[in-house]
C-alpha cells in the first residue's frame, strides 16, 4: 500500500538512508561500548564499568527507535554486522586498549554519531519531517552530553 504522510517517496528514501547510517553508527558504537564494559581494567575499573553499561544500555534502546523510524518511512532497516560496517564511519574495535584509549575512542564515536545526525537533520528539516527531527535532536543531545562526560574523565 502506498505511503501518504506528506513526504514524497524520494525524500523518504533519502531520509531513511541517512537514518540507516545513523543506525549503523549507533550499533557499532553500542558494540564497542559493550566490549569496553567487559574488558576495561585499571584504577577506574568500577566507575568505567558502570558508566559503559549505562551507555550501551541507552544505545540498545536507541537503535530500536532509529530502526522503527526507518520502517515508518517505508524502508527496510539494515540489520547485519556486514551492512553496519559498510554504512558506519565508526570502526569496530579489534584490540583491547587501555582505559584512557577506550575513553578517547568512545568520545570520537559519540561525536561521529552527532555528525551523522546533523547531516540527516538537513534532509529531514527540508521535508518538514518533524518525527525524524525530534528523534535526531534527542540523539544529538544524548551523544553530546555523553561525549562531554567522557571528556571530563581525561581533562587535565
From TrEMBL:
Read off the Pfam families from this record: Ferritin
All residue ranges annotated as the Ferritin/DPS domain in the record:
17-156
Record Gene3D superfamilies: 1.20.1260.10
Where do the TM regions start and end?
A: none
InterPro entries for the chain? DPS_DNA-bd (IPR002177), DPS_DNA-bd_CS (IPR023188), Ferritin-like (IPR012347), Ferritin-like_SF (IPR009078), Ferritin_DPS_dom (IPR008331)
GO: which molecular function terms?
ferric iron binding; oxidoreductase activity, acting on metal ions
Instruction: Write out the similarity annotation.
Output: Belongs to the Dps family.
Task: Please name the PANTHER family in this protein's record.
Answer: DNA PROTECTION DURING STARVATION PROTEIN, GENERAL STRESS PROTEIN 20U
Q: What is this protein called?
A: Ferritin
Q: What is the scientific name of the source organism?
A: Thiomicrospira aerophila AL3
What high-level taxonomic lineage is stated for the organism? Bacteria, Pseudomonadati, Pseudomonadota, Gammaproteobacteria, Thiotrichales
